[in-house]
Design brief:
Blueprint: H1 2-13, H2 58-61, H3 119-122, H4 127-141, E1 149-155, H5 162-176, E2 181-185, H6 190-193, H7 202-207, H8 212-215, E3 217-218, E4 224-227, H9 238-249, E5 254-258, H10 265-271, E6 277-283, H11 288-300, E7 305-311
Parallel strand pairs: 1-5, 1-6, 2-4, 2-5, 6-7
Antiparallel strand pairs: 3-4
Helix pairs in contact: 4-5
Length: 315
């Protein structure tokens, strides 16, 4: 504090006079503080006394042991001591994760026990199989080739082989022509012969309790599907059948319908009007007079008899 007061007192009387270049005003400037004179001693104020080196206490030189921080992932190999430098921090990175794919085997397809009377599938080179191929070509030749067709097979009476004819024609079309074929069972019995035990199908679809996509099932023959008859057998509406066949025409190349026998005219009125062709299946040697009456009945139902298919059972 003594030096500070002494500097404040002595510095006031050693100010340099202000040099004025223009003698306009000769009045001396008294209250203006100017720089110190060049060459004179520059006063200074020292706060805290002279600079001295202070030695640390021995207790401060000893640091307590601390845990060395480790990286999140330790490296698998150590860094060579030669490569280590003072003040260098080595950061380790995690190795990228690898992945491997193991294919899971697909479940084996359910075997379909196709009926032995589907000769076109079991014995393609059998003479009967070749006759079915000729029959299919004859049927397709009389139909429109640029549009999906619905073929309705009706029996003149029960147990004349209408279902056997239909299944062999369907198998022939699916195997030879590589087309999308579906069999619609408007009666009953075709599901078991194609290896299915379906309890729902056409009846539930027309009744509005089952979606059509859920009712269609695959068979043991490629490109051949089945719409089973279903559990609730009963009369169907003609408008519902028209909608169903129109839906199938858009998704399949050939639709084969296993229709009722001609002794049930009420059921025939539901299917006949919506078919591209109606084929009557009757035993070989039956009188043609009966078939002429059936042709008139089919015409009265709104359809047209496209041909007769004679069956013969070898004894």
């Amino acid at each position: 504090m003594g030096r500070m007061l002494e500097t404040l007192k002595l510095g006031e009387g050693r100010r340099a006079p202000l040099a004025i270049s223009k003698p306009v005003d000769t009045t001396p400037v008294q209250d203006c503080v100017v720089d110190w004179e060049i060459g004179g001693e520059v006063p200074y104020i020292e706060v805290g006394g002279p600079n001295k080196k202070v030695e640390l206490s021995p207790c401060l030189l000893k640091h307590p042991a601390q845990n060395v921080p480790q990286p999140p992932h330790l490296p698998t190999e150590k860094v060579p001591p030669v490569a280590a430098k003072a003040g260098t921090v080595y950061l380790t990175e995690a190795k990228p994760m690898t992945a491997a794919f193991e294919p899971w085997p697909a479940p084996m397809p359910t075997p379909f026990n196709l009926s032995a009377d589907i000769v076109a599938f079991h014995q393609p080179e059998h003479p009967a199989s070749k006759e079915y191929a000729v029959l299919l070509n004859s049927l397709c030749a009389s139909l429109k080739a640029d549009a999906p067709n619905v073929l309705l097979f009706v029996g003149m009476k029960p147990h004349v082989g209408a279902s056997t004819v239909l299944l062999n024609l369907a198998a022939t079309a699916a195997m030879q022509k590589k087309s999308r074929v579906i069999v619609v069972d408007a009666r009953a019995g075709l599901a078991e012969r194609l290896g299915h035990t379906a309890c729902v199908g056409l009846a539930e679809v027309l009744g509005g309790t089952l979606a059509l996509e859920q009712a269609i099932v695959k068979t043991g023959i490629a490109s051949l599907h089945l719409l089973p008859a279903g559990a609730k057998q009963g009369p169907h509406a003609s408008g519902a059948m028209a909608w169903l066949l129109a839906w199938l025409r858009e998704r399949y190349d050939l639709v084969l319908v296993h229709g009722p026998t001609m002794d049930d005219p009420q059921a025939g009125c539901v299917h006949v009007p919506h078919a591209s062709g109606v084929y009557l299946v009757l035993p070989q040697g039956e009188a043609s007079a009966a078939s002429k009456g059936i042709a008139q009945s089919i015409s009265g139902m709104g359809g047209r008899l496209s041909g007769l298919i004679h069956t013969h059972f070898e004894m």
